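Hi R.,

Here's the chain you asked about this morning:
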Amino acid sequence: TERRGRLSRREAQVVVKAYLGATCKELREEFEVSKETISTYWKRVYEKTGCRTQEDVYDWLEKLLEEALS
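And the predicted structure, written out as tokens:
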């Protein structure tokens, strides 16, 4: 998936922590934000990455990590 925009620090944190297994509730508590705010982060992630699902975002993240480590 082509990257359309750079993720904000918080968006990247949400993606990585969710990838590592954090639940929405855990994210809300850690960042002290509402469920709607977490949803907004995901919406922006989808827009910026061109992904449609969290699984697509996780695949995008894995590809990005592979490229960075090769």
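Residues 40 and 46 are 10 Å apart (CA to CA).

Let me know if you need anything else.
M.
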